[in-house]
Amino acid sequence: MPSSPPAVPAPTPAETPTLAELMRRGDVFSDRCPSREVLQHVTSRWGVLVLVALLEGTHRFSDLRRKVAGVSERMLAQTLQWLEADGLVRRQAFPVVPPHVEYSLTGLGREAGERVQALADWIEGNLADILAARETVQRDKSANRPK
Amino acid sequence: MPSSPPAVPAPTPAETPTLAELMRRGDVFSDRCPSREVLQHVTSRWGVLVLVALLEGTHRFSDLRRKVAGVSERMLAQTLQWLEADGLVRRQAFPVVPPHVEYSLTGLGREAGERVQALADWIEGNLADILAARETVQRDKSANRPK
DNA sequence: ATAAGTACGCACACAAAGGTAAGTACCCAT
DNA sequence: ATGGGTACTTACCTTTGTGTGCGTACTTAT
Fold this sequence. Notes:
The structure is a homodimer. Helices cover 56% and strands 10% of the residues of chain A. By secondary structure, chain A is mainly α.
């Protein structure tokens, strides 16, 4: 149980990448780097689930809606448009009535999807540990201020 | 250029996992599964960046604030509390004045962090392709409705 | 003596995310 | 003929995320 802070090891100098550098290779730690937008689309609430769902193959709009439980039509459409704009999802519309549209991953989308799936899988597999940790952390906090 | 939709391959039967099953192994596709909350914390705008930052080692609050460019004190504190509650981040406060608090990853946090880093790294490395795709997709859309 | 740094909590405000409901223009099953 | 399915869009409203500014209780640097 440490009561005094450790000594500082080494100061990290500040970095200021140019815009051109941010295009060649993004930097999520940089405030105005475009990679942050992409990150937000990919890690958005429904974006993650759509990418994982599409890893299994092409889906129609309403198939996705059923698979991704809880998503509204509005947000599913919105999310798909984000991912399509970023070149991760391909949209194929057939000129028939009633409408028929198929969504699938592009090459980029598949690569991204595999990474988000790795994360989602890990969370699913370790959910029990995480929920257990929640209890523990909560208990420890309460112990530090019993009144 | 397909103009008629392909035939359907096979209908997937509906699944309804019980709450108990959702605890042993989460299912992010299930509406009320707790894994979704965890997913949201981990993939939140600042959660991603904090996890990646902490992979490099222990950081103080203000170190994180400087490293994660653009985050406000309010949201950094909030994000850290989410991750701490989920057992991914450890908080160590020293009873000194001025305040000194150190944040680090737990075992769970490191595993999660590695996965989000893999995603962040991929996005950084493929940013150029994604930005290029944005242009292309935009152009294709405009071409389909020139007026 | 004054300013800056530290790690937050709190109140206020705004914008974005997200849900609900309705409308569209047809087809198909009952 | 009525109801449901399809792939959205739009308008309206609520919730959440997020930023800003202020206060704190001191210490260290200027």
